[in-house]
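User: I'm putting together notes for a lab meeting next week and I want to include a structural view of one of the chains we've been expressing. I don't have a solved structure, so I'd like a prediction I can at least talk through. The sequence is below, exactly as it appears in our construct file.
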Amino acid sequence: FGNVIVGIAMAWLTVAFWLRLVAEGRLQIEARVGWATDRAALVVVAVVAYLVATRSPGFGVDTAAYASVFMSYCSGQSPADLGIDFYLSSAALNLAMFGACDVRALPAAWVLLMVAGVMILPSSLGERLRFMALLAVSLVGFELMTNALRQGLSAVLLVGAIAWWPRSRLVGLILAVAAIAMHASSGLILVAAVAARFGWAGFVLAAV
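Assistant: Thanks for the context. Below is the predicted structure for the 208-residue chain, given as structure tokens.
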């Protein structure tokens, strides 16, 4: 009987030992995969950021239009003439280029603001890098990088508002107001996001 007890104990210790090795190996594999994924995301973000920052402001119909608006902003036109949303986005872009008011620097300033917007998200650095990488290689990201510059600035603020809301109502509210000020479509997205919390009926009612 004693031999049986000892045998069971040895078997249990052996199984526990191997399970621990498997768990530690799995953790190591997950850590290595996470490390590789973060580095790959960083490379994608760096390459796309460089390509966008060095492209011509004339690439993309809407981008050329925004460049014209930005030149009007730099010439001293008032918010009433440009529209408050265009004026605010132009002011933000000019701030990102340290007041240079150089239309050639528009793409680089836009990249700087987009990266800065993602970096304020309340998440780990790896998660932020993966988010930027996925956005950069998506169709939505391509549209934001070629035409919808103002919507891009608004979108990153809106993502920040939603991410910050559970942690700080004040920060979330400030970012939401800034997003709507940049582009009114963010207000519709916020309404849809709130309506989605009330189930499909509330969402469909808000959409209608």
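A couple of points you could mention at the meeting. The mean pLDDT is 78. The CA atoms of residues 200 and 206 lie 10 Å apart.

User: Perfect, that's what I needed.
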